[in-house]
Design a protein that fits this description.
By secondary structure, the chain is of the alpha/beta class. The termini are far apart.
Length: 1245
């Protein structure tokens, strides 16, 4: 007899093989058993072997099959299989394949006795998001069912008892299960085998590798353990009951022994079901740290997690919670050889979903051995994990006064003026508050008197030593080689140790300063500044020697008990290695070593936060972004608005001419339609957009909640962004105005614009009253009173609970509190990551950020939004180009897609004309094409370049896009209605490649590499021509994933696809992160635009979608339009730059960064108009008072502003007059002289 067994993992394999061997040995049964799990079905060879086994199988048994990668292919095969099939605890699509004897779940059963018919109906899977829980509830009532099943319903009895055999999967029970199946459903003649009921085992128990016994109580376990040794701490390890009962525990045993070798007790526990919470209250109640080694969620297992319930239990438990990963879909050797690390399905099951509960450090500790027969330990990784666990446990027991902490700050791009950079964060003020908090919590720390003194101690001695910051110590070449043996793997890329970076005669410099038991260190750079040509390489190879020496010094010389990475973000987690599921040889884990890593991270950046968690073994602590305010109008813009008001009071053609002249001087386009009123209204609307543009103001300081006025801006923005128009719509209705009609008229009606300002003024006044009140109840009363003449109190009532939640969250700041709690060995609760006004659940800050369940996106709401924006994009392009655009290049990032439930992915699918297919459990399983008759337009060819972070976090979404492109490429449709197919067939002919290869439309970085490096080339100033910029982009972004899941370089495919592109597009992440706030926008969108220009010989339109749907304006805008808006709203706006300058050194650095990023858009897309540079020069360089203020705060960054202006002129991006250039040259030389100490006292006059 030949039996095929299908399951998600190899946990049961040893017990199954032992049971089969026993049958052959004791009963002479000619039995062959083929066991398939996710690891054996990873590639085509495995599926081919399964097909051969199914062809000769007499029976198929399956269990715990939920992964979509397995479900659909298996369902297709079993649908036509006519032999006995028994599938339990799996996806409904597979359970329905069950057919044994007269019992079948493939069809309605009418032959069961009446009392049983209802039970059969319950057993038949129904599908839906709650199906897994429903099945578990039925299993809990099995004993009731068995009592009423008569002997004539033996097949139903077999189906039900099979669950009990499997869930109590000892070798004995699996032997009994095989006896039942063979004797009842095997081919004739059937042997007479024992028919024994399943043995039962404790629902919860403790296990230890030193004894075969299981302990059903903690007291029994303690009596057995006795006084074997006095542990320095206790570690709870959760595993699955099937792992223990089947004896498949070598990896668990090795982990426990490694932990105990470090003087800790390793207490292994299992629970029978998929809910581990009972163990936290009894068997593991006194442990110091909890390890979930199941590879699944704490509550819900592989089928359906319940993160909210799990997080609540873990908050009560309050211990560090690590989610280790046993490989299920790869054998250990395959995983080690795979640059990807974990396959996407295990990333979801074992990493992304446990993170929703608060799990940290998703490190591999074991998996199927090379022969696939049983699990084996990943010993090198286990040793590293045990070291990290020991350090974590020590934090719970070591007094704070004895703890040594390292705080890491960054210097990027490396320069005197950029030390202490982090997104949205005033690093030195935050560091000062952190040191104060540590001192108050009992740490031995010397706190400087002021923020300025702290910065002086860290930075001001550096230049005299020839460094960007103070030199705290040196690591000699001999020490470095001795303490970091992996230096030999760095040498092929960076030369002999100790290298050239941060090196002098004494060794490798360690920049920073020690404040008692707290060391504040400056993380070394990537090293590109010494060799810019490395930026053109397709793959990253290794960190430089100085980078490795820095972390080596922290571990071995300073002997840090924990490290705190201060702000978003550093470079350690982006060093080469596997994408997710790193090995001990991956550089991030080599660098961080055994040190617990706490990482303060911006709350609105889910994608890079996930990289820090998954590649940097970090526990995150979120911090708030700066407050947002309306940009308002200033200087010439205010004067222009006043002139428009004058026209509105007294329309006069002469005033129109004056308005045109004023607008031209300000670089604001004004229409010349022949209708003066419409032209003035259009100009006024442009001013209204600038005035009402929400901008982040200043920088956040750790532990500081927003002031009342800032809080009011948050509240108004949230109240305005509701789907139904929110509070503005209510106010408009109270004024007798149709809000939708008002928004539609804003672009052409001055009266409508005045009404919108009136609505805004009233609403903001109400929100300020709400914010200034002592509590939310008083706030609701005060705001209601402000609006009483317009909006009835009853209509406002639904708003107050939402605003109360937002206000409470913003004012409740746990950033420093929870960081200190984590350093004491407590649990940091989980939190989603998003903009606070988009998802108030991110508040309060100070929590451990997570991303999302990648098998649930794009959501239906995201698909609806994505389709609407795709339509808007196509409408614009059709209008501008006179027909359908055949191909669009789209840039997708992880951050905006995680924050929007994959709205960007939805846009791509909508353009192709595809939609997601949802499986029986609510997971997105596939895509299907919409019929052309329904679509009503041609399918658009979309060339997608995704970030390395998107590649790491959203691999399933990459698969969906590629699948949609392939379906379109193979659809039998007219080429004029299917541009995907037309271009793919052209590539097949031009490049002589297969259709499957030509249809690939998703491109990204090589595994373990990030970024296009276009930004580094631009910032370094070393690029010589446009070809270098496009070469960097094309070489870095030309990697594709093949059908077997491997990555390969395919620049020819990327270039072939880009040759058809007629427009480039990207979504703006949020109103907090604009086109000039970070360099990644011009790096990616500018990089692809420059590449298309080079390949086609013509620059494509560069379009973006605004994050905020401004009333009366299209979300889709040209890059030039958006840069004009951002420049006026932020960079030239006194409200913005004065708020930055209030942060001193860091604020000047932020100004320099925005100027540099603006220049990047000139370099990549030639999208910056000359007046922008005119105004930047006038505002920051040529204004003596402003320049002196900036130079006093940060002379290096001030010189950087002037240097960028000179480079813009030198490369032809800015046609400045000779006098201006000469003056800028004088200013720059003077600033450089100051920096070099030549004329420090001389004023720049």
């Amino acid at each position: 007899m030949h039996i095929v067994v299908l399951t998600i993992d190899g946990n049961h394999r040893p017990a199954l093989l032992a049971a089969a061997d026993r049958l052959r040995r004791e009963h002479k049964v000619a039995l062959s058993l083929a066991v398939y799990d996710a690891a054996t079905l990873r590639d085509g060879a495995g599926w081919s072997q399964l097909d051969r086994d199914l062809a000769r199988a007499d029976l198929v048994f399956g269990a715990r099959l939920f992964s979509e990668e397995l479900v659909r292919p298996l369902a297709d095969r079993l649908a036509h299989y006519d032999k006995p099939t028994l599938i339990i605890t799996s996806n409904p699509a597979l359970i329905r394949c069950t057919r044994i004897g007269g019992f079948s779940l493939r069809r309605e059963s009418e032959n069961e006795p009446g009392p049983l018919r209802s039970w059969v109906q319950k057993l038949r899977p129904q599908g839906g998001a709650g199906e897994a829980r429903r099945q578990l509830a039925i299993l809990r009532n099995l004993s009731k069912v068995l009592k009423v099943i008569p002997g004539t319903s033996r097949d139903l009895y077999t189906y039900i008892t099979s669950h009990q055999y499997w869930l109590n999967a000892s070798p004995e029970n699996l032997y009994r299960l095989l006896c039942v199946l063979i004797s009842r459903y095997g081919p004739a003649p059937r042997p007479k085998l024992p028919q024994l009921d399943p043995l039962t085992y404790p629902d919860t128990a403790l296990y230890h590798p030193d004894t075969p016994d299981l302990f059903s109580s903690l007291n029994d376990y303690r009596r057995w353990r006795g006084n074997r040794f006095a542990p320095r701490g206790k570690v709870g390890i959760l595993t699955l009951r099937t792992v223990v009962l089947s004896g498949n525990t070598p990896h668990i045993d090795a982990l426990a022994r490694a932990i105990e070798a470090r003087g800790l007790e390793a207490r292994i526990a299992y629970a029978a079901g998929l809910d581990m919470r009972p163990l936290l209250e009894k068997e593991l109640a006194d442990v110091d740290l909890l390890v979930n080694a199941t590879g699944f969620a704490l509550v819900g297992g592989p089928a359906e997690s319940q993160p909210r319930q799990a997080a609540e239990a873990l908050i009560r438990f309050d211990r560090p919670y690590l989610g280790l990963v046993p490989l299920a879909f790869q054998r250990i050797d395959d995983w080690r050889a795979d640059d990807n690390g974990l396959v996407p399905v295990q990333q979801a099951l074992s990493v992304a979903i446990p993170e929703l509960e608060g799990a940290a450090e998703p490190l591999i500790f074991g998996g199927p051995a090379a022969d696939g027969q049983r699990f084996a330990p990943a010993q090198a990784e286990i040793e590293q994990i045990a070291d990290r666990i020991a350090r974590r446990v020590a934090l719970r027991h070591l007094p704070n006064a004895q703890k040594r902490l390292a705080v890491v700050i960054y210097n990027f791009p490396p320069a005197l003026g950029t030390v202490g950079t982090a997104a949205y964060l005033d690093v030195f003020a935050s560091l000062f508050h952190l040191l104060q908090a540590l001192a108050a919590d009992g740490y031995q720390v010397e706190v400087p008197r002021t923020v300025d003194e702290l910065r002086h101690l860290l930075l001001d001695t550096g230049p005299a030593q020839g460094a960007d910051a103070n030199i705290a110590d040196w690591l000699s070449a001999d020490e470095y080689r001795r303490l970091f043996p992996a230096y030999t793997e760095i040498e092929p890329y960076w030369g002999p140790a100790p290298g050239e970076l941060l090196r002098d005669s004494r060794g490798i410099r360690i920049l920073g300063r020690q404040f008692g038991n707290v060391f504040v260190g400056v993380q070394p750079s990537f090293g590109y500044e010494r060799d810019p040509m490395r930026l053109l390489l397709a793959k990253d190879a290794a960190p430089n020697h100085a980078f490795a020496a820095f972390y080596t010094w922290l571990i071995h010389k300073f002997r840090a008990d924990a490290v705190i990475h201060l702000g978003t973000h550093g470079a350690m987690e982006f060093m080469p290695g596997k994408q997710v599921g790193l090995s001990a040889r991956c550089w991030p884990l080599r660098l961080i070593g055994p040190i617990p890593n706490f990482y303060l991270y911006s709350v609105n950046n889910p994608s890079e936060a996930a990289i820090a968690k998954r590649r940097g073994a970090a526990t995150l602590v979120s911090y708030l972004v700066p407050p947002v305010q309306q940009a308002g109008l200033y200087k010439g813009l205010r004067a222009l608005r006043d002139a428009i008001d004058q026209y509105e009071r007294r329309p006069d053609p002469a005033l129109v001419s004056d308005l045109r002249e004023r607008a031209a001087q300000l670089g604001i386009p004004m229409a010349t339609s022949g209708d003066d009123y419409a032209d003035v209204a259009g100009l006024a609307h442009e001013l209204l957009r600038i005035e009402q543009r929400m901008i982040p103001v200043g920088l956040h300081v750790l532990g500081q909640p927003p002031a009342p006025a800032e809080l009011a801006d948050f509240l108004w923005l949230y109240a305005s962004l509701q789907p139904d128009g929110g509070l503005p719509a209510l106010i408009a209705r109270g004024m007798g105005i149709d809000y939708a009609d008002l928004c539609a008229r804003l672009g052409s009606d001055l009266v409508a614009q005045s009404q919108m300002r009136e609505i805004e003024a009233l609403g903001r006044s109400a929100m300020l009253a709400y914010a200034e009140a002592p509590d939310v109840e008083a706030g609701a009363r005060a705001a209601t009173a402000r609006l009483a003449q317009v909006v009835p109190a009853a209509q406002l009532k639904p708003f107050w609970p939402k605003l109360a939640e937002l206000r409470t969250g913003l004012l409740t700041n746990h950033e420093l509190q929870n960081l200190l709690h984590g350093l004491r060995g407590g649990f940091i609760p989980p939190s989603p990551s998003n903009d606070a006004v988009r998802n108030p659940a991110v508040l309060p800050t100070g929590r451990n950020l997570f991303a999302l369940d990648p098998y649930r996106v794009p959501t239906p709401a995201a698909m609806q939004r994505g389709e609407a924006l795709a339509t808007e994009l196509l409408t614009r392009l059709c209008s501008e180009q006179g027909g359908w655009p055949e191909s669009i290049a789209i840039v997708l990032w992880g951050t905006d897609n995680l924050k929007s439930d994959c709205e960007g992915v939805a846009q791509v699918l909508a353009l192709i004309g595809a939609r997601p297919v949802v499986d029986e459990l609510g997971n997105i399983a596939d895509v299907t094409l919409r019929p052309l008759s329904e679509l009503g337009r041609p399918r658009i060819d979309v060339v997608v370049t995704v970030s390395g972070i998107f590649r790491d976090l959203l691999g399933n979404q990459m698969r969906l896009i590629d699948r949609a492109a392939y379906l379109a490429a193979t659809a039998d449709e007219p080429l004029e209605w299917n541009f995907v197919r037309a271009h793919v067939l052209a590539q097949v002919a031009e490049q002589r490649i297969s259709l499957e290869e030509a249809a690939i439309r998703v491109f990204t970085n090589a595994p373990g590499s990030y970024g296009a490096n276009v930004n580094f080339l631009v910032e370094s100033g070393t690029w010589e021509n446009d070809e270098q910029l496009s070469d960097a982009f094309l070489s870095r972004k030309s990697f594709v994933r093949t059908a077997d899941g491997q990555w390969r370089e395919a620049r020819h495919l990327l270039e072939g696809a880009l040759r058809h592109v007629q427009a480039t597009f990207q979504n703006i992440d949020s109103f907090e992160v604009g086109l000039t706030d970070i360099d990644n926008y011009y790096e990616n969108l500018g990089g692809v635009a420059k590449s298309v220009e080079r390949l086609r010989g013509q620059a494509p339109p560069v379009l973006v979608a605004d994050a905020i749907n401004t009333p009366g304006a299209s979300r889709v805008a040209s890059i030039e339009t958006m840069l004009r808006l951002e420049t006026r709203a932020k960079l030239l706006n006194p409200k913005w730059h004065e708020a930055m300058l209030a942060h001193g050194f860091a604020g000047v650095r932020e100004i320099e960064a925005r100027v540099g990023h603006t220049y990047g858009w000139s370099a990549t897309a030639n999208a910056v108009e000359g007046w922008v540079y005119d105004e930047i020069a006038a505002t920051y360089a040529l204004d003596d008072t402003m320049r002196e203020r900036m130079a006093a705060l940060n002379p290096s960054a001030t010189a950087g502003v002037v240097r960028r202006l000179l480079e813009a002129a030198g490369r032809g991006f800015w046609a400045a007059d000779e006098a201006t250039l000469n003056r800028l040259q004088e200013i720059y030389q003077d600033l450089e002289d100051r920096l070099e100490g030549i004329s420090e006292e001389r004023s720049v006059r």
